[in-house]
Amino acid sequence: MRPESLFPLFAPVGSLKGVGPRIAPALERIAGPLVRDVLFLAPHGIIRRPRRTLSEVRPEETATILVTVEEHLRPRSPQQPLRIRTRDGDQRLDLIWFGNASRGLEARLPVGAQRWVSGKLERFGLDLQMVHPDYVAEANGLAEIPQIETVYPAGAGLTARMVRRIVHSALDRTPDLPEWQDPAWKTGRGFPSWREAIRALHSPQDDFDLSPAAPARARLAYDELLAHQLAMAQRRAHRRAGAGLRLIPAGLSGAVEAALPFRLTPDQLTALAEIRGDLASGQRMSRLLQGDVGSGKTVVAMLALADAAAAGAQGALMAPTEILARQHFETLSGPLEARGVGVVLLTGRDRGPARREKLERLASGAAAVAVGTHALFQDEVRFHRLALAVIDEQHRFGVGERQRLLDKGEGVHLLSMSATPIPRTLELAAYGDLDVSRIVGKPPGRTPVATRAAPMTRLAEVEDRLVAAVLSGAQAFWICPLVSESELVDLKAAEQRARDLQARLGGRVGLVHGKLPGPEKDAVMADFAAGKVKVLVATTVVEVGVNVPNATIMVIEQAERFGLAQLHQLRGRVGRGRAESACVLLYDPPLSDTAQKRLDILRRSDDGFAIAETDLELRGGGDALGLRQSGFPDYVFVDPFVHRDLILAAGDDARLVLARDPGFTSPRGEALKVLQALFDWRPETGMKGA
Ligand code: ADP
Ligand code: MG
Q: Is ligand 1 within 6 A of the CB of residue 297?
């Protein structure tokens, strides 16, 4: 239930003064549907309007100037602007208005009058001009022009000035809320109260106030992190409270392991031991297995599934695409069936009697392991005794989807898998409700991928080499990113690239993109996996974990636009066999210094975690990292880089609160309920609510 003190903040934006039915939708687009969201709309700049004489100002400066009106130059056609010529001392300044904006201005600026004008100056020949001044005031009206102004995101028909006014009317409604931060921590950090912080957020005095490190912004970020960490800690406590089926590893999984054609790496062994510890604990497991593409997560998952089968229970492995599910099925079914463990593949393609038979085998327990896609959590799917759910590429599923699978049994253990290397410092924010196992080292026998960067000017050369390699049997990925505003433009570019390559390689070139229907995409991917298609041109990050050992070339266009973690993941699709592999990062010159450094790291390092960490440092957070796509929360105030120490502090704080006052009954607990309601991280979903 929402505390009453928050009601004003959870009113719709339409309830604010000056926000009618015309403005409300635009405001919702910029900020969100609630008064709270308007208050949370952080300004991104300030405009100063210092008083200046014309002899002091320079072009491109914004200033407030006292001028004398000399002459009105009326437009001679509708296309021409109204030009009002003014003077300050012996310098001239033309004020300019186009179209409707010029209405009534001649009367407000009569010839001979003195007026204050404020706006940005531009050079006009030898003189200066000001197009659409922001303010015009009478000679005694200087006070009407603010000296400093806050700049908000605008657009969708809303000007920055309108947003400013609306924010101010929202500020008038800001209630005082009980303090939920620990007093010693708050004092130590020099944090203002919540209300002061919101006010300060909207009245920055200098650039520092705009930065995430400013005390007001840091406080709000901490609040947000704490609310999130509390929600995750609660979810974790809730999961743990439920008993998990006790699964003790038995001979079966040992036999499966012994039959593998290779030895597990030390990291795989550690991860497996951690998982087995959880499975045997009697508490429900909530674990994330992190490791680069190709690091060998699937084998670990297979052995855990064997543990479930050995205990007379069932396990499920869910993957985001048909082709991945199929690959997993092929990996698992041999070794498991050989030990008498029935494995079923269930995807959206299964229909009719065949599907019924599979469902029957799961419901009766005849099959101990299910591998599949979204098809696995559909209502008709029932298990005899589901004990372990493994979710591959977990961020590709919604929280609700994962839950539906877990709900198919009682006390089901969860093993999530992810190939997105999240920097260690951010792990708590991304996966605070999970225990994490990492596979860092790679299986032996991999040849590192030779990585180089080349400007687009060398495209022809890259194509030549690729064609030659393909003609002698190699397979290649060619990635064209989605970068422009219009997906259509990007798609055209990819189609063109595919045509160029088809002109030389014919039917050996396939194209997949986001607009392609699922089954067609799967068909092209399957042809590629089977070696019928030699070059796969793709607009987006295709099937993350797809395993095509024969693919040895990866070309990525506009590589400078990608997050490094993404580039690293893409590169991970090649270099899986024994053959030498190459990755070419094509970029549009010139490269900025940072971009150059970023591509350099990829050339030098093959450790996904190290790469992600360096990327975070080089780019300093922001969404440029592409973190959001990988399941990082959509924070309002938190900067993943600047606030990384706050992430850790909030995690500790949350755990302590839950240990001491799990019912939130202390005064601080009561205040924390307000905080949680304010940010509204839904404990059950981990998502931010409306
Ligand atoms: P991931 O799921 O992490 O992307 P996979 O489990 O698909 O990686 O492993 C990629 C490849 O490496 C598979 O062909 C697998 O058989 C092989 N592999 C896994 N572990 C080892 C190991 N310890 N030694 C050698 N090869 C391994
Ligand atoms: Mg995988």
A: yes
CA distance 409 to 606: 40
The single-letter DSSP state of residue 370 is: E
Query: Side-chain half-sphere of 493: how many Cα atoms within 13 Å?
Result: 17
Three-state SS sequence of 640-659: CCCCHHHHHHHHHHHHHHHH
pLDDT at 622: 47
Q: Is the CB of 545 under 6 A from ligand 1?
A: yes
| Pocket flag, ligand 1, residue 298 (CB < 6 Å) | yes
Nearest to 291 by CA among 572, 577, 547: 572
Q: Is 299 in the pocket of ligand 1 (CB under 6 A)?
A: yes
| Ligand 1 contacts CB of residue 324 (under 6 A) | no
Tens-place pLDDT, residues 543-601: 555 778 889 999 999 998 887 878 888 898 888 777 889 999 999 989 888 888 888 98
Average pLDDT over residues 238-251: 80
Query: Residues 398, 270: contact at Cβ < 8 Å?
Result: no
Atom of ligand 1 nearest to the CA of 268: 23
Q: How far is the CA of 578 from the centre of ligand 1 (A)?
A: 13
The DSSP-derived string for 82-135 is EEEEEEETTEEEEEEE-GGGGTTHHHHS-TT-EEEEEEE-EEETTEEEEES-SE
CA distance linking residue 381 with residue 359, whole number of Å? 6
Rounded percentage of the chain residues whose pLDDT exceeds 70: 95
Tell me if residue 257 falls in helix, strand or coil.
helix
Q: What is the average pLDDT value for the chain, to the nearest integer?
A: 89
Q: Comparing C-alpha atoms, which of 29, 34, 30 is closest to residue 42?
A: 30
Alpha carbons 173 and 150: distance in angstroms, whole number: 19
Residue 443 in contact with ligand 1 by CB distance below 6 A: yes
Range with the poorest average pLDDT among 8-17, 450-459, 637-646: 637-646
pTM of the model: 0.75
pLDDT tens per residue, range 471-505 = 999 999 999 877 666 677 778 888 999 999 999 99
The angle formed by the CA atoms of residues 605, 606 and 610, to the nearest 5 degrees, is: 70
List C-alpha distances in Å: 370 to 269, 360, 384. 24, 12, 12
Expressed in angstroms and rounded, the spacing between residue 298 Cα and the centre of ligand 2 is 6
Confirm or reject: Cβ of 572 under 6 Å from ligand 1. no
Distance of CA 299 from the midpoint of ligand 1 (Å): 7
Q: Is the bond into 590 cis (omega within 30 degrees of 0)?
A: yes
390 by DSSP, 3-state: which?
strand
The rounded Å distance from CA 297 to ligand 2 centre is: 6
Provide the terminal-to-terminal Cα distance of the chain, rounded to the nearest Å: 14
Secondary structure class of 551 (helix, strand, coil): strand
Where is average pLDDT lowest: 129-138, 459-468, 481-490, 602-611?
A: 481-490
The H or E element that residue 72 is part of is strand 62-73
The H helix count followed by the E strand count for the chain is 23, 22
Task: List CB contacts of 522: < 8 A, sequence separation 6 or more.
Answer: 321, 322, 323
